[in-house]
């Protein structure tokens, strides 16, 4: 079975380590915050200018001056700090954020990512995504493995305009966890009940399949 | 003699000298920390042909969205413009020029503009449409593109508290682009929720010194929330 949104978020959360500063993109990445292990300290960075983002506020706590990168009202955890956008992107670009998780339309086996623009369709903008992929060393892309019509999103070369070049090393899809090394996807884990053949069929870029591919524990 | 006193008492005075075809650098992220009354004053003045650099372009009927109603904006420099139907229509019809700029690059372009740095190299956007036509240079085996600084005839911004000299404090994530925007304006106009007497702010707690501020006005704010998200008790 393909992973649900919640299972994807759970698997992302397994990448967290104690003491990590993490930037979570909008959508599934944000859900991963719900699965931070209780015995672990992880601090969430919101690129509009907050380190130490907490959960949504109670109704009476809502503050128009405190929002996340998706413009949603949020709270701050104890030990949080606030800063301007230049400072925020200095910590992103400067490689100080330990882990970045974001979505994409396509990823290819050169580590290129396309996530912000579909020509001919409305262009909304890249927001902070280009800075995040250019600045972070440790990035996980979360996405569906294929489109609804069964077209692979893991390609030998991205077809859409790029958000970043040669910057992605790990992709988590609803079917598989893959690394990108030496111009190839390497299958590391498969979703519970999903066969290696199914993943091979839906991966268009070069794929290396090790002898043993464990099931994810989600 | 007004010395360092930056306070003006009307919005008309605050934006005196703003003319057609000028460039404005604006603070704010979404509708958070936007100079909402200064934007309303630009609408009232009817200034046209404006180039505006701001992370976003407001929403329909709010923030910079107001300036689209009478087609006052010629060009928008922004990182994300997704929440605005009027914007979309004017962009599609070609009436509105849009220069999409990555968020961190936009912040740094404003910072550089205010800090006397004409351009800087960044890896952000290399190999993407953003990097097209820009100078590329390699440092330590990595590719970077040259991005030019941004400055404006005016900067408009919102802070939380100020003293009469224009020393500023911001509040929570309403800080966002405001400090850099202010540094990047030839004439920087800041509206705040509260103006206190000089000496009442602790110098250690001032986020941006008044040297960058030309005009200061106290206003009242709607503070529209774009996405009200709450959890149950």
Summarize the structure.
The complex is a heterodimer of chains A (218) and B (233). By secondary structure, chain A is α/β, with parallel strands linked by helices.
**How many DSSP H or I helices of chain A?**
5
Which quaternary structure do these chains form?
A: heterodimer
Distance between the termini of chain B: 55 Å
Counted up, domains of chain A total: 1
Strand order within the widest beta sheet of chain A: 4-3-2-1-5-8-10-11-12-13
Commentary on this structure:
Chain A has 218 residues and is α/β, with parallel strands linked by helices. Chain A has one domain: Glutaconate Coenzyme A-transferase. Helix content of chain A is 16%, strand content 26%. In chain A, strand 1 (20-24), helix 2 (28-31) and strand 2 form a beta-alpha-beta unit. The radius of gyration of chain B is 18 Å and the shape is globular. Chains A and B meet through helix 3 and helix 4 of A and helix 5 and helix 6 of B.
Task: Walk me through the topology.
The complex is a heterodimer of chains A (218) and B (233).
Chain A: H1 5-13, E1 20-24, H2 28-31, E2 42-46, E3 50-53, E4 76-82, H3 85-93, E5 99-103, E6 106-108, E7 113-114, H4 129-135, E8 139-143, E9 154-155, E10 170-173, E11 176-181, E12 184-190, H5 196-201, E13 207-208
Parallel strand pairs in A: 1-2, 1-5, 5-8, 6-9, 8-10, 12-13
Antiparallel strand pairs in A: 2-3, 3-4, 6-7, 10-11, 11-12
Chain B: H1 11-14, E1 23-26, H2 36-45, E2 50-53, H3 65-69, E3 73-78, H4 85-92, E4 97-100, H5 103-115, E5 119-122, E6 136-139, E7 142-148, E8 152-163, E9 168-169, H6 178-183, E10 185-196, E11 215-218
Parallel strand pairs in B: 1-2, 1-8, 2-3, 3-4, 8-10, 10-11
Antiparallel strand pairs in B: 5-7, 6-7, 8-9
